[in-house]
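Fold it.
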Amino acid sequence: MSEFKISDPLLRRIVYAIGIMGVIAFGFYTMGLLKNSIAIVLDGLTPFIAALLMAYILAPVVFTLQSQLRLGRIMGTLVLYLVIFLIVFLLLAFLIPKILSEFIELFNTLKEVFPVLLDKLSQNEYLQIDEELIRVIKNKIREIEIDYEKAAALLLPGLKKVASGGIGAVAKATKGIFTSVSSAVSFFSLFIFVGIINFYLIIDWEKIRPLLRKMVPPQHRERVFDVMDKIDNAVGGFLRGQLTVSAIVGIMFAAGLFCTGFIGFPGLRNYCILIGTAAAIGGFIPYLGALIGVTPAILIILLTMGVPWAVKIITLIVVLALFAIIQGIEGFVLQPKIVGRGAGLHPLVVILALIFGAQFGIGGMIIAVPLASIIRVLVLEFYWLPIERREADLIDSGEDET
């Protein structure tokens, strides 16, 4: 019986593409049926998944501490834990209260600015906006309220004091987290549980590879571990690298806007921590952090009243220049040097992975991006690269025949 082959390269690629889309569609349908069961399993495994990812990210740091400080594995891990504890303490004591106070101040400022801006727009003879529409919009804006009580209650009861506003109240509210026994116990129990699992994973990290090697048949070890090394470079490079890049982008934005505030636009200095933190969080998606950082900065400049337009234009130019510099540094220096070209995921892939993972709860979001990196490597290794090699062989054989 002769083997069926498609000689036309274009038709062959179309058939392959249709087959892959069919497999993907069937996979989505199956996962849709099992969505609730998968979500329950992932929720139960969330501490273990979080601990595994933390160990995966932190293990190289422990190895570096061992080699640089000549410490044992346990002592190196404890030193790293001490550093993490100090960072978390500084976040709770200083950064989070500052971010919350800046957010409250910005929200209240925007509520005051928008009605004035709408009045000016209604007076513009070229726009000819209906005054009744302006009045309705202004009333809707005045009715907008952030329910600090409800939002804080969803986090921890101690944060209810945030509703009073002001950095002093926010600082007290942050300290009040620790006074709410039921919430604090549940939170820190999970935190300690994850930390204990993470500790033992880091201690035994180097034993995992030999154990896996014994489980793989000898004839397949070379190929399996070659693919595993590529997965390790992709997942580890993206997670460690992108977290580092996002932190650097956030710091650059906060520092840049703080310095920009001295040229006559103090509003940017007042919100530099909030904007820098937003840029750092958004920076986990490649190239999105700089965009998230520059957008609120531009809005603050344009909506601030009582500042001459000459100062606004100069500040806009400075902020756009800052955006261009940070974007250039991220694209040409940070991404290639820290993340690596082979480890990078397209921003749309990261967004889609996070959206898809969110359907399965927190556990799904935690594993979404690493899973996307693994799938990318597997698709390249077992689907795309064989196609390219096959097409190259066909082209070479066609040239030989001619």
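DSSP finds 15 helices and no strands in the chain.
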